[in-house]
Fold:
Amino acid sequence: PGTGKTTLAKVIANTTSAEFTQINATVAGKKDMETVVQKAKELLGMYQKKTILFVDEIHRFNKGQQDYLLPFVEDGTIILVGATTENPYFEVNGALISRSSIFELKPLKKEDIKKLLQRAVYDVEKGMGSYRAEIDEDALDFLADIAGGDARSALNAIELGILTTERSEEDGKIHITLDVASECIQKRVVQYDKTGDNHYDTISAFIKSMRGSDPDAAVFYLAKMLYAGEDIKFIARRIMICASEDVGNADPNALTVAVSAAQAVERIGMPESQIILSQAASYVASAPKSNAACNAIFEAMEAVKTTTTTVPVHLQDKHYGGAEKLGHGVGYLYAHDFPEHYVKQQYLPDALKDVKYYTYGDNRTEQAARAYWAKIKGEEN
Structure:
């Protein structure tokens, strides 16, 4: 937002001989598009004049509305220019995307925002120079920085400051100080839409930071989500998943911490839950990593889908003497009857008897477990 998408569309309108029509997808419907298409056909037929249709917030059109435009884009009746703050590959029909060129507009740089603000304050023709306002350098830096690359946010703040600040009795001018600027934009505009790209990008960065063992980055993205009002239960669920998927048995306590945090935030709520989530996220990020359990279940699931197997007879649920061992199949060896509670025995089905799904990670905890069982099973060598 605020990077000049609509402005670029107007530049196109002013520098082309084509008819330029603009609609906003938040309020326009199929009837509006039918009117545009009909007029475009007339202009093309009578004057050989093309029509550029600019659709602002094009992601707000549903599939049917987007499909309606497709044949007219295809046959050249209209040239479609769409603007969106969402990822078009997710929000715009693939057929339209394949016929389009995609341009990504980056957030404006701080220096660019400063130039816009100076023009807004001092330029009589293009700004509010006629109000005789002045802005302090620290206020200019503050607004340019806190706008987060969004020119509209910065311009709205400076307009509010000029219109609501009393003139100085000394020189009769409006002085935009740091205090005034702070009042006009009290909270940084965080680019974070709970149903849009920023939501998925931020949670992705959060998870990857924990997986990548960077607690600083994990806490930063946590703060960004909390600041934007993300559901704390959603965040807690992602920490629990990461604790199992990426830490696993390298530190089994990570899952305990994550689950405890999830329970705690439900009972406590904000703002205190930010501390609990920070503890859990930083713990998971700092913990040794292993995806052995994750890989094991994925491989086992694939085997279940592709292999026909039966449970070995000695593991089946069949009664055979001794009430304490009721339900064991014939030939089953009861592990607790043997030294160190282990006896060599086949557990996997015959077709998979030599398959290894779980590979111990190279962390201290899993290697200790591997060494223990290697000793018990006599596999040390």
